[in-house]
């Protein structure tokens, strides 16, 4: 689809805090578009703009909060973003996370363009009190019903998240699960000889990710299995406490905290790992794991994965064939599952192959992007009633 001038239509990819290292999936989806040109817009930037792309920020770039950005955050006034866009008139706005959909809805209505919002996790599960305590989020519960009425379409990162979004009152006819997808064509399955005795955990170091549970489980499982290592990629407020836990558990020499790493290095480290583990827990604030993209990337490389039976994690695997599930918050159960895979290289190889097949069949990014662009087409051409556009998925 092209506009009247024959050029590829430009669409706004909106996230208040763009290019966070933990949210590379937003950029990956936008960069996979072939018939639409992404224009990244937000309040602040936490990473580099993709090469050859344009990005606009209320604070001019960087992560600082300016008076203009703070005013917009508190009031939802579309004026600052209108001035930021200048003469640009995007065909559509795609917001990532429900909080950002609420924030940019006034701009979409002022421009008269469709607003697509993708829900990823905390925006569908966090309790209302937690939103009201945050200056950046307090507008969300106040104007969520307005988003449900006026938003053009709502995409959900998993079936689990869709069930939560529907429970919040969003219209079933305009709410659909849409997996972001993995670039299976660009990911070459690893050879069995690349594997080392390494358990890999890639996550922001916050409570929900279950890193504490993994450390305790690894300490149990690795005690009688010398040579095994745990690599932790990511950073966050719990790092100091987790490093202390590693010392207390007596596994300091076997655990590496690697901090934030470029996505390319993460994928390289996956190739030489034996398994990837995401034992997310269920905090009291209601937050739940939306899906677990790191498990999909690991499976695409050919690694077995272990996740907790929480949120949308179960949707990332064919249990028993490509991955294993454990109860959330149970280090002993996780230790037993870790030990099972540590002791069985043949099973690891078979599950890795099963994971690659599962992801290719259900999560190929090329196929998912075509479906997303077909939705954009339908919204812009108004060729389908919105509830019928569900058939595009």
Give the tags:
393 residues; alpha/beta; Rossmann fold; 2 domains; seven-stranded parallel β-sheet; six-stranded parallel β-sheet; 15 strands; disordered N terminus
Description:
- This protein is of the alpha/beta class and 393 residues long.
- The chain folds into two domains: 10-181 and 364-392, 3-Layer(aba) Sandwich (Rossmann fold); 192-362, Rossmann fold, CATH 3.40.50.2000.
- The chain is built from 15 helices and 15 strands.
- The chain has helices at 24-31, 67-75, 79-85, 98-111, 122-125, 128-132, 139-150, 159-167, 211-222, 239-248, 263-271, 293-301, 331-342, 345-362, 365-381; strands at 10-14, 17-18, 37-42, 44-45, 54-57, 92-96, 115-119, 153-156, 175-177, 198-202, 229-233, 255-259, 275-278, 305-308, 323-326.
- The strands form three sheets. The protein has a seven-stranded parallel β-sheet with strand order 5-3-1-6-7-8-9, sandwiched between helices. A six-stranded parallel β-sheet has the order 12-11-10-13-14-15, sandwiched between helices. The protein has a two-stranded parallel sheet with strand order 2-4.
- Helix 4 links the parallel strand 6 and strand 7 (115-119).
- The longest helix has 18 residues, at 345-362.
- The radius of gyration is 21 Å and the shape is globular.
């Amino acid at each position: 689809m092209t506009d009247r001038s024959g050029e590829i239509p430009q669409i706004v990819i909106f996230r208040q805090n763009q290019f966070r290292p933990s949210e590379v999936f937003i950029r990956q989806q936008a960069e996979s578009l072939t018939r639409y040109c992404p224009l990244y817009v937000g309040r602040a930037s936490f990473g580099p703009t993709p090469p050859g792309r344009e990005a606009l920020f209320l604070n001019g770039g960087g992560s600082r909060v300016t008076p203009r950005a703070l005013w917009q955050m508190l009031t939802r006034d579309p004026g600052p973003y209108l001035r930021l866009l200048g003469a640009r008139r995007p065909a559509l706005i795609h917001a990532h996370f429900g909080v950002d959909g609420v924030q940019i809805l006034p701009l979409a209505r002022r421009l008269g363009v469709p607003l697509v919002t993708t829900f990823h996790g905390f925006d569908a599960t966090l309790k209302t009190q937690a939103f009201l305590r945050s200056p950046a989020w307090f507008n969300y519960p106040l104007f969520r019903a307005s988003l449900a009425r006026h938003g053009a379409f709502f995409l959900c990162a998993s079936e689990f998240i869709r069930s939560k979004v529907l429970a919040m009152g969003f219209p079933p006819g305009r709410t659909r699960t849409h997996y972001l997808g993995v670039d299976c064509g660009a990911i070459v399955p690893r050879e069995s000889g690349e594997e080392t005795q390494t358990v890999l955990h890639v996550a922001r170091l916050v409570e929900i990710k279950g890193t504490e549970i993994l450390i305790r489980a690894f300490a149990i499982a690795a005690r009688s299995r010398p040579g095994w290592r745990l690599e932790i990629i990511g950073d966050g407020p719990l790092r100091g406490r987790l490093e202390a836990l590693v010392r207390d558990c007596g596994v300091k020499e076997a655990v590496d905290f690697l901090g934030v790493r470029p996505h390319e290095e993460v994928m390289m480290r996956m190739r030489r790992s034996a398994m990837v583990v995401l034992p997310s827990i269920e905090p009291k604030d209601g937050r739940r794991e939306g899906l677990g993209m790191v498990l999909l990337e690991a499976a695409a490389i050919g690694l077995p994965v272990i996740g907790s039976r929480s949120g949308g994690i179960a949707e990332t695997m064919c249990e028993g064939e490509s991955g294993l599930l454990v109860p959330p918050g149970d280090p002993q159960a996780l230790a037993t599952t870790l030990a099972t895979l540590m002791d069985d290289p043949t099973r690891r190889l078979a599950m890795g192959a099963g994971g690659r097949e599962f992801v290719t069949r259900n999560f190929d990014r090329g196929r998912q992007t075509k479906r997303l662009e077909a939705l954009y087409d339908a919204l812009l051409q108004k060729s389908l009633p919105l509830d019928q556009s569900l058939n595009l998925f």
